[in-house]
Structure formats: C-alpha cells, structure tokens
Protein 1
Amino acid sequence: MWRGTIRQSSVALACGAALFAAGCGSSKSSATTSTKSTTSEATKSGLTTNGKINYASPPANAQVQSGLVKISYHEISIEPDTLKVKVGSTIEWTNHDPVEHNVTSASGPSKFASKNFGEGGTFKVTVTKPGIIHYRCTLHPATMNGTIEVVQ
C-alpha cells in the first residue's frame, strides 16, 4: 500500500511539473503550439528576444470594445493579451492566479502602475487618449505583456 502511494505521488508530481512547464510561455491568445518555433513566431507571440519584450499587436480586424473591458491574468498569462478599445473605456485586470501580479504601462498615451495584487485582486484604468499602450506585469514580463490600441 505504501509503495503504491509513493508511486502515485511521483506520477502526480511529474504530471504537475509537465503541466507547469507547458503553461509557461506567452499569453494564451498568441501562444505558439509547435515545439519547433522560429524566431519570427517568438517575435509574433510576445516573447522576449535578447532581453527585449516583443509586444504583439491587435489584428487589424479586431473588434473595438467599449465600456468596461476585462482582462484576465490566469496561469501566468494574459487573456486577451491584445485588444482595441474606444477612448473613455475602462480596462479592468483581474488576477486569477495564486501568485501576485501587477500592471505597469511601458509606453503609450496613458501612464499607470498598479501595486502588486493577489488572487481575486483587480486594477482599473480609464483610457482618455488614442494611441498604443504596451503594458506588462513587472513580476513576469516575459510571459505577461500586452497591447491595448485605443481608438476614437
């Protein structure tokens, strides 16, 4: 009985480690599923190259959202990691992870920086000027970075 418990625990630990490793990477909406990714795929997916974050862009045909627009932090990634919103919209980030995250603008017409917030915590910002906002979680910048295109 005891050996079976150790074996089951070892299998569970190995599976957990494999799932964790598979979850590391770019945000969900732009993650590359192939294990043979090229430099151009890594650049498109928002990963870092030579220590620099390569921010993804919203698709040209992305729907423009308005009002309260929600972004989810989940599994050390962002969903959605790119979006288009109208001026005057409020963006709300919610942390669904058991670890702390934050939101810090890296460039664009809006400058903001949240404090770290834990699971269930939120951060909101209302965008008032058009332009491209790049942002990241400074605790996990390689996998948690995004782009918001603000339009009139």
Protein 2
Amino acid sequence: MARETLQIGVVVQRCKPVGPWAQESWLPVAALPAAPDLAVWSPLDASGAGDLRYAGAADLEFLSGQTSHYRDNLVSGRPSIWVTLRPEGDAFVVRVASADPYEGESMADGLEGNVEAVPMPAAICAVVEDFVARFHVERPFVKRKRDRMGRREQGLE
C-alpha cells in the first residue's frame, strides 16, 4: 500500500464566549499548503487583536487504499480538510488532520476536542488529485446474494 505525507499549517480563530459561564474557545478555520516558519500561537491578523493564530503543523497522510474517499471529497463541491484541536492546559494542540471525509466524520463522533472541516486550498487539492490519479484502482460493486436455505436444511424441521 502506497503512503505519502504532506505537512500543512493550521490557522485557528478565537470564538467569543456565548454565555456568562462559557470560556473562550478556538476553532480551526483554515489550512495552509505548507507549515510556515512561525512559532506556534503566533498572531496572524494585521490588527494585532490575536483573533487569528497559527496553531501549528499537522501531517496529512494519504493511503492508496483510500483514494475513492479522497475523490469523493474532491468532487463534493467543497473539498475540505478535517482538523481536530484538543485542549491541553491553557492552549489547544492540533491533534490530527485528514482529507478523508469518512475519517473526518468519525473524528467528529468522538469527544476528543474541536473538529472542523476547513476549506482545502487549491495547492493541496492538486496534491490530492495527483495522488488519486497515480494510485486509484476502480473496484466494481458486487452485490452479495443471500444464502437461501430451507427450513429442512437449517435443521428446523
């Protein structure tokens, strides 16, 4: 099975508390085609308010057995990367990133942190398209037939 890895950068945005007891939170909002040469939690907005920050690098792993999933993501109309942030002390840490929509769905089912689908940049789309073109093998759908046994063959009569 072929495997390739692409390191990306993750941008997060501060979410203001909604209620009086809620704490501020951070949500992934963007993926960068490469990890920039910045310190983790460096502010990215020009105003200096610190609402946008670089959360760190994440590895996007591509597996040749999952090419149909990546293709589904690309033709969805909104190619995305699913990013999970996990609280660690006073900050949040990038836990995992995936271009597989079904893995993204399973990440959202857990309670391990904030999971968001962020738009996939064109440069990453090109890498995914190239990977799919090189390794995708179309597998025909084969419907299984039920094994029909009568009551006598099952030992019920």
Protein 3
Amino acid sequence: MVEKANDFIIKKGDNVSVFYKGTLEDGTIFDSNEGKEPLKFEVGSGQVISGFDEAVIGMKAGETKRISLSPEKAYGLPRKELIIKVSKKQFGENEVKIGMAATSSQGHRGLITDVVGEDVIIDFNFPLSGKTLKFEIKIASINR
C-alpha cells in the first residue's frame, strides 16, 4: 500500500508546517501566525517548545488540535536567580517605573517588577515562563 502525503501521520523527524494560535489561560492571545506563513520545523529537533513538539506527533495534514501546556512543557518555571536587585543609581537620571524594560550589561532584556526605596527589582525570566499556555494547532503540511 502506498501512503499519500495527506495520509501521513506525523512522527519524529518529519518536517511540518503548522498554523497556530497561542493564548494564556484568560484567553489573551500572546502569539499567532493565522493569516501569515505557517511555522516550519522538524518534529523532535528542539526547534519549538517540547509540549508543542509532542502535540503534533500522531496528527495528519489538515487536522486541528487544541492543547494546554504546563509551564514545564512550555517555557519552564521562573528561576529565582534571574530576578535581581540593583541600585536605582544604575539608571542615572532616568525615571524608573514598574513595568519598564531594562537591559543588562550583557544585553539580556528584563522587566522592572518593583521599586523599593533605592532598590530596583528586575526579572530577567522569559515573560511566558511559569505560565500555562493553550494552543490551537492546524497542520498545513507534512514533508518526509
């Protein structure tokens, strides 16, 4: 029996093209490629978060699936060592407010989460770490 491309069931090593919409638990969309080019990746290669990678295995072209990923299967849990306290003096004359972006001397981007007296707390964790993510995934194509 000869398998047609649209009958392929996705397995590790396949190259797939997918459309997706990612939302937080409250329904806020954090990313989507709807109306754009599909995301292309090799299944199992680590190019996408592990839960997304695992979710497409067993799907067929044209199939749609909704998934919910725990932080461990998405961007991980926040790491305490990536939350640092610095002196407000490091910002010079610039105004410092909660919610502002900050960049480390190594070029890492963080978010100011608190200002207490002369101390500024900056969180350098990825913004989606610690969050449960929901995805709607549609397989556009499978290439072997």
